[in-house]
Specification:
By secondary structure, the chain is mainly α. It has 6 helices and 3 strands; from the N terminus they run αααααββαβ. The protein starts with a helix and ends with a strand.
């Protein structure tokens, strides 16, 4: 998306530079078929954007949220192109709206995807959970069983959610079945948290 937007910015800037040197702007032709197709594209992508936002918020599915972000970019770029084309049909002097709008939309798309890329990179490299979330996990582990002593706890990103590792210590005379059940119960309790992908105890 960034490279495609950079190419749009380059072509639009070249058109503005050529016009500044006296070259006549390329005429924009907008047929009925073009108008219908662009309006349909904006409508379908807008419906897809709304669906992705609703379902993405409900499920937390990052793929659906990314699809929604792509639909949002399509709505903005196609709507801007449609407005610029209509304006240039009304008055040839408004041809500037097309390259200037393309540059602004291109910059916005690059910035938007750059911010998304930075956020996703933190998830990929296993960024540690914040102190508040670690405190919540610590409290859950400490209250879980009066015989269990918390030895170590860590949580780091495993995609958009967390992979949690908890080490607890039980008295040495604890039967294997009880220690196993204690660990499994704590694992299941932590995995019920919305932010947790998987927990190991």
């Amino acid at each position: 998306m960034g490279l495609a937007s950079a190419e749009v910015i380059r072509e639009s800037a070249a058109e503005l530079i050529d016009a500044a040197h006296g070259a006549p702007p390329a005429p924009l032709s907008l047929t009925l078929n073009d108008t219908v197709m662009m309006c349909l594209t904006v409508g379908v992508k807008l419906a897809l954007l709304i669906w992705c936002r609703v379902v993405g918020q409900q499920t937390g599915n990052v793929t659906i949220l990314a699809l929604g972000q792509d639909a949002q970019n399509d709505v903005m770029s196609n709507a801007a192109a449609l407005v610029a084309a209509f304006a240039s049909q009304l008055s040839p002097g408004l041809w500037l709206l097309d390259p200037v709008g393309a540059i602004l939309i291109g910059i916005w798309i690059i910035w938007n995807w750059w911010m998304t890329g930075q956020e996703q990179l933190e998830y990929i490299v296993g960024k540690s959970a914040d102190a508040d979330f670690l405190d919540l996990l610590r409290e859950m582990a400490l209250r879980h069983d009066p015989l269990a002593r918390l030895d170590k706890i860590s949580a780091y990103h495993f995609g958009p959610r967390f992979l949690v590792e908890v080490e607890i210590v039980l008295p040495e005379d604890t039967p294997l079945r009880k220690s196993h059940d204690c660990g499994i119960a704590l694992q299941h309790a932590i995995e019920k948290l919305e932010q947790v992908e998987r927990c190991f105890v």
